[in-house]
Amino acid sequence: MWKSPRQLAEQHKGQPRKASAMSYVLQFPLVLCWSLAALAAPGDGSVSVTNIFSPVSTPAEAIYANALLVILICAGIFLIVGGLLAYTIFRFRRRPADAGREPPQVYGSSQIELAWTVVPILIVFVLILVSARAIYDVQGAVPPPDALNVTVVGHQWWWEIRYPDLGIVTANELHVPVSESSRPRPTFLKLESADVAHSFWVPQLAGKTDLIPNRTNRMWIEPKQPGTYLGNCAEYCGTQHAHMLLRVIAHPPGEFEQWVAAQQRPPVEDSQARIGREVFFSTSCVNCHTINGTQARGTFGPDLTHLMSRETLASGAVPNTPDTLRAWIRDPQTLKEGSLMPNMQLTDAELDHIIAYLLTLK
Ligand code: CUA
Q: What is the pLDDT of residues 94-105, one digit of tens each?
C-alpha cells in the first residue's frame, strides 16, 4: 500500500534515525545486488528502472559506449597497478634472512618515470578524442523534417510539457513516437524553467540537461522500443525535488497518433458532473489550472484538460486513482509537503462533486 511521507515518518517514529557505519556495510551487498539486477533489466517495453547501462535511444547509446570504454580502460589500469602492487608486496616481503639488513636503496629511474608520464597522457588523449566525437554527435544532431518538437518547462515541482505544433499541453508524462529505422522520428526538446534550475534526466534515453530560468537549452531523445521510461529531476530545486518524477512513454507510431487525437479533443461534457463543474468553477482552482474549452485558463499549475489520461498525480508522487485524487485535493500538503497547491478547505460534499467532475476529464 502506498504511504505518504507523513505516514512513513509516523511509522518510523521512535526508531533510531542515524544509520551506523555498520548498517552501511551491511546494506552494501544489497545495493550491489540491486544494481546488478538493474544491469540485467531489459528494455522490453515494460516500465523499467532508471538505468544508464540499458540504453534504448541514440544519445544514451553514445554515452553508454563512452562509459564502457572509460570503465574498461580504468579497470585495466586498476588490474595492472593493483597486480604489480600485490606482486611486489608478496615477492619482496620481509624474510627471516633479512634481519638487520637494509633493503637496496633505489633513487628514481628515467625510463619508468617517462613511461608513467607518457602512457597516461596517451590514454587521456584517446579519451578526449572519443568523448569529443560523442559530444559532437549528440549536440550537433540536426532535426530531420519528421522530428517531433516538444517544449518542457520545469516548475517547482512538476514538468509542463507543450507540443507547440500539435496544440497539446500536458504535464509530467512525455508521450513520444518510437523511432524506427525505416522512419526515424526523434523528439527534440526545448528546455526552459519557470522558477529555479531543474534538470531533465531519463537515463535510458539521454544524458542530463539543465532547465535554467531565462535560457533555452536543447536536447533530444530517440527511443527505439515502445515502453515507459522513468526519469527524475537531477538538480536540487527545493523541498520536493525528489518528487519531481518524469515518465516518457514511447508509443508505436499508430498508437502515438491515437494519443495525439485524444489529447486534441476537448473534454466531453457530462451532465452527471454538472454540479461538480459548477463547484470547480466557483473556487479559485481556475486561477491556476487550464481546462480547454472552459473559462479555466490558469497557467501556474498543470493543465487539467485530460487529467485522467495520466498515470500519476503530483509529478509521479502517487498513482492517479479516484482515491489518491481525492486525498490530493483534500490536502496537497499531506501527499507532497511544500507543494505550491494550497489546501482549498473544501467540504466533503464539495470534494465529492469536484472529483466527479475531474473524473470526466479523460
Ligand atoms: Cu526540479 Cu529538482
A: 888 888 888 888
What's the angle, vertex CA 80, arms to CA 79 and CA 85, rounded to 5?
A: 95
Q: Kindly state if the Cβ of 237 falls inside 6 Å of ligand 1.
A: yes
CA distance 67 to 61: 10
Helices marked H in the chain: 5-11, 21-40, 58-91, 110-139, 253-264, 274-282, 285-288, 322-330, 332-335, 348-358
Instruction: Quote the pTM value.
Output: 0.80
Low-confidence ranges of the chain (pLDDT < 50): 1, 9, 12, 14-19, 38-45
118 alpha carbon – ligand 1 mean position (Å) = 43
Three-state DSSP at 115 gives helix
Spatial distance between the Cα atoms of 213 and 211, rounded to a whole number of angstroms: 7
Give the number of other Cβ atoms within 10 Å of residue 203's Cβ. Answer: 23
Report the pLDDT value the prediction gives residue 344, as an integer from 0 to 100: 87
Q: Is 241 in the pocket of ligand 1 (CB under 6 A)?
A: yes
Cα separation, 71 vs 94, whole angstroms = 35
Q: Half-sphere exposure of residue 212, counting CA atoms within 13 Å on the CB side?
A: 8
Answer whether the bond into residue 159 is a cis peptide, omega within 30°: no
Q: Are 54 and 42 in contact (CB under 8 A)?
A: yes
CA atoms of 354 and 345, how far apart (whole Å): 13
